[in-house]
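Q: I have 633 residues here and want to know how they pack in 3D. Can you give me a structure?
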Amino acid sequence: MNLQLFLFTFVITLFGILSLQAEDKRPNIIFMLADDLGYGDLSSYNPESNGMAPNNTPIRTPNLDRMAQNGARLTDFYSAAPICSPSRRALSTARYPNRLGEWAEAYRGSPDGVVASKDPTIGMWLKQAGYSTAVYGKWNIGEVKGISWPGAHGFEDWLIIDHNTGYFQHQNKNKECQGSPMLFKTGGERVTNLEGQYLTDIWTDLAVDFIKENRKDPFFLYLPWSIPHAPLQDPDLDPSTAFDAGPKSNTPEGREAFVKMVEYLDSRIGKIFKTLKKQGQLENTLIIFTSDNGGMLSGNCWPLKKSKQYLEEGGIRVPCLMQWPSKIPAGTISEQSSIMMDASVTLLEASGALKFLPKDRTLDGINLLPVLTNKVEVDSNRTFGWRRRDWGPTGNYLRQEAYRSGDWKLIRTYKYLRNKKWSAEYNDELFNLGQDIGEVENLTEKMPQKYQEMKTSFDQWKTEVVNLEPDFLIPLRDQLGSPANLPGVIVLEFNSRSFEGKIRKGKTDELVSDPVNENGICKVMVKAGATPPLLHAIMDVDTKKYSKMRFEMKISKGREIGAGRAVLRHTIWKGDDLLFKPIADDKWHEYVIDCTESDAWSQWSSSGRIGIALPVPTTGEVEISLKTIKLDQ
């Protein structure tokens, strides 16, 4: 009996050990994302350096060339957008950015960005699967601690910039910078002791250390590099180089700096490969390299049309290399049409992390490993869609749309007016990419039946994918009338890290501080003699539904204070404001303004401005605090 018990226990223990060993054979995963690299910039895609001068100067990338030789090179791989933010949203969520809402089709994000609790991401699932996780690079999908920063999205260690900065001086022109580095580490603490060090070196050193520290456990290392995005600053420059210095991107000097930057990135990637090999981890590491969108103006997008910002092929078709020595045959060249979310799904499948997805979660990619390992045939009938949008305080415009089905591609370009405005008029083009990769011959007239078929299919794609009722709606209608139901209720809220509205200080800028958001409250210091500062938003308002503006305000006591005004300008700055009497006693007071008392309310247009003109003290200085400004019925 004891012998039987012993044998049973031995078998169970052995099974457990073997299971753990099988689990441990899951690959390490490294996802490397270049920033604005063109399809024709790598010699593995363009060995003869074809293209237009000066952007056809060759770039030496021996490590990426070796990666193409030792793994797979995808010839028909797409970004999910022609600009960085929506592309990164797609990579992280493994879904079209459009599913987050129309706001996510643009560079600008919602106040909270991609909210981890509502839209889970690959870092979260890989962490659940037992992977050690880290991200070093340009984040760009949200910057609210505990909500959309890397810690909320499953990353245990991180050092990031939210938006592009200088490569030596880690600053930018964002209003929250104020001369401070925009580099943040695990927990959200600002890093100030690395000024003068080249960003790519900082991230590479962290990556090498992370790999060494995780020799025994599977890891996920996300490296969204900022190279070669402007400013064009190569590593040989003086470390004191100003954050915004560098040659213009559409010049020979710009291309020269671009080339040096990409070559240097390749050398840092080589350092990572060398570390993996030395640690004995190279064979079982899945490495993916691609670009967030097409090449910028110093990039080479040959043989494709246009570049970053556009939905022609040069703006969205990007290089993509995948290496996993123990799985993917060396020298694989795949013509499988694919998109950024496929890379996300591929790494989730390889890691065994797909089982942690919520059951009702739809992903928009496929696992590419079967086709890259010759287990299945290329699917030549896949469909993809894109929308290019700009929105902000001054407007909301759909610039382009595109749809690919098999070899066929439809591009819809809205008529540009001026001053960053587009009309509802558009021009459609139809191309057969199998015969015309440069998108030269428009076939809309020659093939009217195919043209109609593509339009119908694209409309269906938009119905299925574009989320018209997200948690956050753009507060301005675009030229097509979307969103149909304006959010309306919120004029200004202060939950984000920086002030999202507009402030107009007149000619007394030095007497009014910049607005500062803190825990949902906006604070402004106002000195005597100032022109009343206007905190406002540009937004369309449903004046039939709403009639009142409501907000809470607190003014520090001890000073006499002038009148406040509800700013109601129906068309740009035309309109009639309404006065109200503020109370300065260092306590919160609610103010309710009847907007219908202003003639502006009945004349409201989509370019209307609404907000508060803050009161000004007769002497000294006051601190004015505001909570959410909203509309009421």
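Q: Anything worth noting?
A: The mean pLDDT is 93. DSSP finds ten helices and 29 strands in the chain.
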